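@channel sequence for tomorrow's demo:
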Amino acid sequence: MGIFNDLWLGLQEFGQFLPIMMMLIGVVIGIIVGVLPGLSPSIGVALMLPVTFGLDPISALVLLVSVYLSSNYGGSITAIAINTPGTPGAVATTFDGYELTKKGKPLHALLTSLTASTIGGLVGTIILILFSVPLAKLALSFESYEYFALGVFGLTIISSLAGKSPLKGFISSGIGLLLVTIGFDTELPFSRFSLGIPDLADGITFIPALIGLFALGEIFYSIEKGDYHEKRASAKVNLSDTLPVKQLIKLKSVILKSSVIGTLVGCIPGAGGTIATFIAYDQAKSSSKHPEEFGHGSLEGVAAPEAANNGSVGGALVPLLTLGIPGSAS
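structure tokens (generated this afternoon):
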């Protein structure tokens, strides 16, 4: 019964005015941070650190976790609306979220994202409370062999998402690996492929890559086609066209499964929510009754990565709170 006593004491501390206020403020700030493609959850948490110096430990922790969790959700808004993920974890959401927007159903995608993110966060928190100690031991058991296997698994998933052209997926993965090699070597003290440019010494980070690959790519594609405004005009949005509850209930299995996947992957230090979203997306596509809809506006394709992305937050807190080892950069 010790865990329930600790949970009750925690709820009593959280039920005071200041922690609740910090939670509300953190959620608003986190969503704003997530919506802006130039920022990330780790930047949002770092910006809030000076604010926590004048707070008690409970309120400070509530503020930081609220910013972290809500910024993960906020990244899906721009991913769905303009095909530009606000955070690295929202990349997989663009595959189906933006397709729904082009069909005039952005509210369906946004409501699915909100529901999946909420449930994913709750599942991650429950697993954190009940199984934090054994999961921390499991995460620490990962060595170089396991990390290599996880990386290869992630690359094969990316290739499988290429549909009928897996070769294109392998080529894209290879280009991505080449881009990662830019910058200082982690083992030997020399720079690789930086061409003498100081700005490339640290390599190509997530945020510039996301903006370049998604935002600029969408702009150039629209300029080339020359029918951007025509497509936008034809995709009329009906604000009263909300998603039926029955459709959300049908997503319960994929949301729960993806939440668990996100939490387990999040427990592994260095893995992060981005890997979890691709694994969850691939698993959802493999087990779906309509896999052909993925990439063309599938609600399952929106729910799976969002549930995994927010479930990974609870997983990342497992090694942090039990062993002092952060599960992610945030």
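heads up for whoever presents: The two ends are 32 Å apart (CA to CA).
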